[in-house]
Every structure is written in C-alpha cells, then in structure tokens.
Amino acid sequence: MDLREALLTIIPDAERVTSGESALDQHGRDLSYHIPRRPDVVVFPVTTDEVSRILAFAHERRVPVVPFGVGTSLEGHVIPERGGISLDMTRMNQVLEVRPKDFLVRVQPGITRTQLNKHLTPHGLHFPLDPGADATIGGMAATNASGTTAVRYGVMRDQVVDLEVVLADGSIVRTGSMARKSSAGYNLTGLFIGSEGTLGVITELTLKVYGIPEHIVAARAEFPDIHAACQAAYGIIGSGIPVARVELVDEHTVAAVNRFRGTHYTETPTLFLEFQGTKAAVEADVALAQEICREEGAVAFRFETDSAARHELWEARHDAALAIAATAPGKRMKVTDVCVPLSDMPEAIRRARETIDRYGVYGAILGHVGDGNYHVEFMVDPDDPDEVAVAERINDEIVRFALERGGTCTGEHGVGTGKMRYVAEERASVLPLMRAVKRAFDPRDILNPGKVFVLE
Amino acid sequence: MDLREALLTIIPDAERVTSGESALDQHGRDLSYHIPRRPDVVVFPVTTDEVSRILAFAHERRVPVVPFGVGTSLEGHVIPERGGISLDMTRMNQVLEVRPKDFLVRVQPGITRTQLNKHLTPHGLHFPLDPGADATIGGMAATNASGTTAVRYGVMRDQVVDLEVVLADGSIVRTGSMARKSSAGYNLTGLFIGSEGTLGVITELTLKVYGIPEHIVAARAEFPDIHAACQAAYGIIGSGIPVARVELVDEHTVAAVNRFRGTHYTETPTLFLEFQGTKAAVEADVALAQEICREEGAVAFRFETDSAARHELWEARHDAALAIAATAPGKRMKVTDVCVPLSDMPEAIRRARETIDRYGVYGAILGHVGDGNYHVEFMVDPDDPDEVAVAERINDEIVRFALERGGTCTGEHGVGTGKMRYVAEERASVLPLMRAVKRAFDPRDILNPGKVFVLE
Q1: Would you state the pLDDT for residue B239?
Q2: Which residue from A172, A412, A423 is facing B185, i.e. has the nearest CB?
Q3: Which of A74, A226, A276, B401 could form a disulfide with A244 if both were Cys (CB 3.0 to 4.6 A apart)?
Q4: pLDDT (tens digit, 9 = 90+) per residue, A404-434?
Q5: Which residues, listed in sequence order, are joined to residue B375 by a DSSP beta bridge?
Q6: Share of residues in chain B with pLDDT > 70 (%)
Q7: Cofactors per UniProt (chains A, B) (predicted)?
Q8: Distances from the Cα of A267 to the Cαs of A203, A254, A327, in angstroms?
Q9: For residue A330, what pLDDT band results from cuts at 50, 70 and 90?
Q10: CA triplet B180, A182, B64: central angle to 5 degrees?
Q11: In chain B, whose CA is at the least distance from the CA of A234?
Q12: Residues B157, A408: C-beta atoms closer than 8 Å
C-alpha cells in the first residue's frame, strides 16, 4: 500500500489526503529563494486526534512529517527536504475560547493573525504581534516570530501560556496552563516555541491578548542620517515611553516604497513610530518623543493621526518587501534577519547598505530598531548560480558582522535550512544539547527532519 | 580521601571549602518550614573554571551538587536532600559589564538584585524585578522568579538574553547572545531558567535593564470588598495603562502590617499601585486609574507621591510576610503560590481566606493581581506534626482550587520539593519529557537531585 492509500485508512477523505500536483507544488515551497522540494502527500487534519493518528502512523513507518501553515516562512522551514507528509494545519483554524476577563484566547494553530483579530475585536481585545505576513499563529509560534510591535509586547514566546502538542509517536501533551505565569517545572512551552516543527506538532495554543488601545497615533520622524535616527529611537526607549512600534527605514527603502505605492514620503532615514494607550498618555508620550527626535537632529516629525493615514503608513512599511519584489518579477525573495546589540545597529545598517551597493544589488533595509533586529530584502534568481552566490556572500557579510558584535543570525525568522550553518557557529557550545533534546523528543527523526541543525 | 580533602585539591583554600558547623547549617535550610538537611561540604567558587572543575569532579564521583544563593527560597530548593556539595555562588557576585547603550548588563549569578541596582543607578538604569526578598540574580533565574513588577516587565525568563552554564560533566556552554531577541535554535536559555539547578549551574547572566523612570507615583485604592478591588485591577490593565505594580492585600493583611509597622492604612481590601513613566504620561495614567477605581466602587484613592511615602508603601507590602512571622517566633514560614486565571482571582482569594479562617490559622493574603498570582503566608512549627498536617491541608485546598480552574501550583516560587506532587499532577502529560531532558543533561543525576519531579 502506498503512502497516500495508507493515510486514507486514517482519514478516509480523498480531498484531505492529496497528491494533487498543485497541492504538492504549494506545499513544496515557501516565500523565499530556497529550492522547492515537493512532499509525497499533503494531509489536512481537522482534529488533534487526526494529527495524533497520522503521527503515530508516520512514527511507525518512519515517514517525515512537516507541519505547514500558509507558507510565508523565509528560510525553507516548510520545505519537505526528505519528502513525506506535508501536514497542512489551516483547517484547524478555530477560535476555541475567548476569555475576555482573563485576557486569554485559546485557538487552533491554523488561524492567521488577522482572522484571530477579527474574532477578538468584538470583545475589545487584540493580539498585537505583527510579523508583516498574515501568517498562522501556529507558524508564528514554530519560529518564535515577532515583528514591528515586539518592542512593546515582546515576541511570540512571550504570548503563549499553554500549548497542546502532538509528539512524534502520536501522544498528546499539554505544556502549560491558563495561568499567566508559572514556575511549575521545565519550560517546555518555550522549548516547543521556536523549534520549527522538529519537536512536535502544535495543535492548540492559549495566547495572551490585550485591550484595544483607546488611542493610537502614528508618526514619521525624518533624520539626516541613520545614526541620528537610531539615537532618537534609543532615547525614546530609554525615556520609558512605552512605544508600540519604532521602525527604521533607510532613504533607499523609502524611495522604493514611494515608487511602489505612489506615496510621497521624504526620502531620508526615517523612523516610523506608533504610540498606543489612553489619549492623555499617548499625547504626553508623543510630545516627549517629538522632543527627543528634535534633540537628535530630526528634520521633521509628521503625524498620521487618523486611522486611514496610519493604515497607509504601516501598509507602506509592510510593502517595502513587495516594493523590492516588484522590481524583479520572476525572482524570489532573500531576506537577512540578524539582530545585533542596540548600539551596533547604526553601524550594522550603514555596512549592510554599503555591502548591497558594492554587489550592485537593489534592496530595502528595514529595522525593528527597538530590538536591534533588521532585514535586508532583495531579489534572487534561484536558477542563476552566480546570483545565488552573490546573495550568499551578502548574507554572509551581514551575519558575520552581527556575530562579531555578539548578535544573532536570526532575530525572528528562524533557522530552517537557510541559517543552519550560522546557528552551528553561533550556538556551537549548545548544539550537543539541542541534539540531545531532539533525540529525546523525536528518536526516529520524523519531525521536519534536516532543519535547524545537523542531527548527526 | 574524603570529599572535602578531594575538593581541596581543586580549590586549595580551606576557607572556601568548608565543613564548618555554621556553614553546613546555613546551607542546609531555606526560609521556609521545610526540614533542613545539611550538605557534606560547602564550596565557594570564585570563577567559572572552578565551578567547571568541581562539577567534573562531582560527575566523576557521582556526588550531588546543589547551587546556593542567599537561601531565600521557599520550597526547599536549596536543601541538599542527598547531602554532597552545596555550591555557594555568592562570591561570584560581580557586575562584569554594563552596556547602557544596549540596555544590557552582564553579571555573575551571586549578585543580589539590590547590589545590581546600586551598580546600575549611576548609568540611569534599573533592573525592575522585585520578588520581595533580596535574592541573588542566579537564584531568581533558577526559579523563574518575578514579583510585584511582573505585570509591567514580565518574569525573570523575559529578562535574560544569555546564560553561561556549567553542565553536569563540567563543560561550559553559552545559550544566547547579546541580541534582545533570537530565533536561533531551541530556547535553552528559557529551559535553564526555572530548572532550579537540576540541569546546570548558571555562572553568568546577561539581563535586559531599563531606563530609570522619570516619574513614579504610588497609590492605595481602598475597596469595600475583594471582588471590587479585582475588577478595578482588570479595568486598569484592560485600559492599556502600563501599570508598574498592582498588588492586592486583603483587610486582614493590612491589619497585620499596621500592627507590625505602626502604619495606619485603612483595614479594607486595598490595591497598592505604582505608575512609572514620563511625568505627563504618569499623570494621565493615574487620573484614568483613579476614575476606573471609583467606577468599581473604590471608597478612597490615596497618593504616595514622595519617594519616602512610596518606599514606606512597598516596604509595608514586602513586610507583610514579616508581620505574620512576628506573630509566631520560632515557627517557620509556609507560603502558597498558586496562579489562577485572572477572572478566578476574587473567588480564589475569598476561598483562601475562608480556608485559613476555618483552620484557625493567622495569615496574610497578598496578590499579584495583574498576573493572577497570590500568596497565603502563615507560620508553621515544623516539629509539630499536627500543625504541619494542617498547613498541608490548607495548601492542598488552595492548590486544588487553582488546578480546577486551570491555574498552576506555582506562579513564581518554583517547585523544590514542596510542590513536586502538585507538579506531577499539573504537568502529568509532560513529565516524561521533563525526565528525558533531565537524563539528557544530567545522566548521573548529580545536579540538585530529588527536586522538581521524581526522576524514576
């Protein structure tokens, strides 16, 4: 009996256990330049029990299983390097329970963040994490995603109080509780988060949610140079202003966005800022932030007070990647994701721009400046070995600088296959521990094999 | 060669490798009612290399090693249940590097939080976590401590970006980087934090630090009942006010504090509040918080604006435990530490008071109401089996309610030996994974053996 036929005995629904060409194609790639590789079969479970039975089967037969959300990962995480089953979680996308009085929500992993927020709005709540893509919550947990609001709300790992996880052998575990904090034993919740599907398949998450802010103000602060923009950002953070977003874009990136969206933002290093809270507090925060920006040499501080202009600003920020993509149809995206100590960020960004200019590459630079995490986004033709080699050299220079300064090769995108060699270097001393954990959790190496680190 | 003589070959300093009576006594107990048990020898390492050599030796000889800070733990964590070496880390108490521009500090584990803050003040920085006791930073990391400011700043695990850890066999690893966030492989930093010395000995920590707030206001909001106080707290949190502290004390606890400290706080359920930030934002936050408290039925809202009155308020809060202790000289402290979903807190606290009243026990109830974590503190004579049995029954009722409501048996104190049986229940499905991790990290079970869970 072939794999699909065998799986049909577990889920007797041909539409949910498919080897159709388009399904295999869709589940063989992510958003990036990484080389696609199709799974043998795509399965769409709808219950935890189905996931459990599929994993028990895969464990027995030693078939690789790769969890799949909406495929917005950027480092090849969801590409089934060794074939097997792509486990598409998007039909497990229910909000199971909104607990407004507990500021918690219990969801299935296949729900996307915008779907989730639609459910939360009537309760006066929101889930603030925003990695740009409309990723699934399960995928965001798998990579410990974060994005523009991490400076205020933290990363994905900070939001999750409980997980239901199906282990490699099909057993079902629950890692946490409905308590907002706990010291009850080893932090397995935090271990599964960021493990990129290599330790278990997340089938349920309980997340912290937040009251929708009474008042939101967005602003652009324009600077003569990157250094001044960074200094202003650190001044704002150091002052204790609970800034919700503080994003750095360089002048070339603003230019790309203007071309792509027809906006008229001044083409100079700019901080995109957002303040959230009560009206009076926000007004006070904005006034102080404006003063700090002026002191650091800001040439302009422009408000986007109404929600349309604010929406436009963050769309523009999110679209920087698309603006770059639009310049090179047919090519695929390459995005660096280093995170450096805050004080190294101006130099890191200056060098990153110098590097891509030197290689004659057209790219955007976007910085989560409150975290020291920035992205260089540019386009690569995966079929052109020279272009791929240049992309790797650019990435290598950027990562090298980050590691020299005590940073990390990935602030939020995760490792996948794309950053394995850097993780091997950056986390060299703990690789044996990671391998020991993997062997303990997944002794037959069926869960997203070949990702994060080399097991042997 | 006996144990001490053997250790003296590694650290040839009789003063730092001691079997003196007072040292053995001091390292055989914590702050709580748990039965003391002396180690065979106390070692005071001063370098990571010494820790490494001691562990390599202990690993070879299968000698238990229990890391020790200042002994403020409350669940027997530091009591050497199987004898062996108590590894006193307090001479490794240096600030290794303050990086003000990165909002980071690198410290040795034996520094206490007040010592650390003395070093940070000249840089305009502070480390806000405040578990009450002046614990060591290493001890706070080992138990994932938090305290009154967790509602704003998060728990210990949220503060640590990098650890140096000596493993059971003496090897030295580094788990993180100087980046404020990272998705580079499994979250071993978060796994070591809260592992209570059972997976490795922390020898260095890199922590996030924060700008000293420009303005701080403390206040007391007095309510007719616990429920109204809780509702006000959730209203404040839901409004988006970034409240720095929101502590609930019941009327009996206020009375105990008044007797102990000679204060004249109104003896009614009260929220102790603190607001931090820029002056204008704090003023706005306070005004809104006051309005919310009034709406929820607050009978008074009293400010402690000057730093002396504010200090007095938090001293009073911290001293609630001492106030109870003062009523029973010679007895030892028992403290429950459950954390429940926020909406269950009023009922949890009402029942907890009903429980201790029913058993005729005099105790304080203190709630980190922003987290759903509350403590019942009362005194026990460890030599009186009846009294110990009553203490266990009280604890059992309180924990039972928390677990029924989806909470946790420990919000911040950790497991030690005192909560092992509850963790076995609460985390039943993941106990096999915890055991697998322990075996992988410490195959000879020398690191704080007999804690957190039963290994076999």
Answers
A1: 86
A2: A423
A3: A276
A4: 999 999 999 999 999 999 999 999 999 999 9
A5: B366
A6: 100
A7: FAD
A8: 45, 5, 18
A9: confident
A10: 90
A11: B101
A12: no
Q: Which residues in chain B are contacts of A371 at CB distance < 8 A? A: 179-181
Measured CA to CA, the distance from residue A151 to residue A245 in angstroms comes to 7
Whether chain A has a CB inside 8 Å of the CB on B232: the answer is no
Split at pLDDT 50, 70, 90, the class of A278 is confident
> Which B residues 244-273 touch A at CB under 8 Å?
none
What digits encode the pLDDT tens for the residues A155-213? Answer: 999 999 999 999 999 999 999 999 999 999 999 999 999 999 999 999 999 999 999 99
First to last CA, chain B: 31
- Rounded-to-integer distance, Cα B243 and Cα B241, Å: 5
Q: What percent of chain A has pLDDT over 70?
A: 100
B103, B183, B339 member nearest A144 (Cβ) = B183
Could you state, in order of their start, the residue ranges of all structural domains in chain A?
3-90, 95-211, 215-318, 329-418
The DSSP output letter for B100 is G
Report the alpha-carbon distance of residue A317 to residue A272 in Å, rounded.
8
Give A179's contacts in chain B (Cβ within 8 Å).
339-341, 371-373, 402, 406-408, 411
Q: Strand A65-68 to strand A85-88: parallel, antiparallel, or no bridges (unpaired)?
A: parallel
Query: Is A138:A110 a contact under the CB 8 Å cutoff?
Result: yes
Residue B35 touches chain A, beta carbons under 8 Å = no
Residue A305 reports pLDDT greater than 80:
no
Phi, psi of A197, deg, nearest 5: 75, 10
Kindly indicate the confidence band of residue B116, based on its pLDDT and cuts at 50, 70 and 90: very high
Say which amino acid occupies A251. Answer: E
Could you check whether A215-318 and A329-418 share the same CATH topology?
A: yes
What CATH number does domain A95-211 carry, 3.30.465.10, 3.30.1060.10, 3.90.1800.10, 3.30.300.350?
3.30.465.10
What own/partner pairs with CB < 8 Å and gap ≥ 24 does A420-427 have?
Answer: A420/A451, A420/A452, A420/A453, A420/A454, A422/B184, A423/A452, A423/A453, A423/B184, A423/B185, A424/A453, A424/A454, A426/B177, A426/B184, A427/A453, A427/B175, A427/B184, A427/B185
Q: In this complex, is the C-beta atom of A280 within 8 Å of any C-beta atom belonging to chain B? A: yes
Instruction: Flag if A143 and B183 touch (Cβ within 8 Å).
Output: yes
Tokens of A323: 């603006």
Determine the distance in angstroms separating the CA of B179 from the nearest CA of chain A, rounded to an integer: 5
Largest Cα–Cα distance of chain A, in whole Å? 72
Per-residue pLDDT at A423: 97
The answer to whether A287 faces chain B, any CB pair under 8 Å, is: yes
CATH of domain A329-418: 3.30.70.2740
For the domain made up of B329-430, give the CATH fold.
Alpha-Beta Plaits (3.30.70)
* Closest residue on chain B to A243 (Cα): B242
The answer to whether the Cβ–Cβ distance between B102 and A341 falls below 8 Å is: yes
Among B97, B163, B181, B425, which would you mutate to test the A interface (most chain A Cβ atoms within 10 Å of its Cβ)?
A: B181
The CATH classification number of A3-90 equals 3.30.43.10
**A105 token code pair:** 């929500």
The answer, yes or no, to whether residue B1 has pLDDT greater than 80, is no
What does the pLDDT read at residue A236? 92
Q: What is the CATH number of domain A215-318?
A: 3.30.70.2190
Between positions 174 and 213 of A, the ones with CB within 8 A of B are: 174-188, 190-191, 193-195, 199, 210-211, 213
* Average of per-residue pLDDT across A276-296: 93
Tens of pLDDT along B69-97?
A: 999 999 999 999 999 999 999 999 999 99
Contact A285 B278 (CB under 8 A): yes
B chain contacts of residue A199, beta-carbon cutoff 8 Å: 186
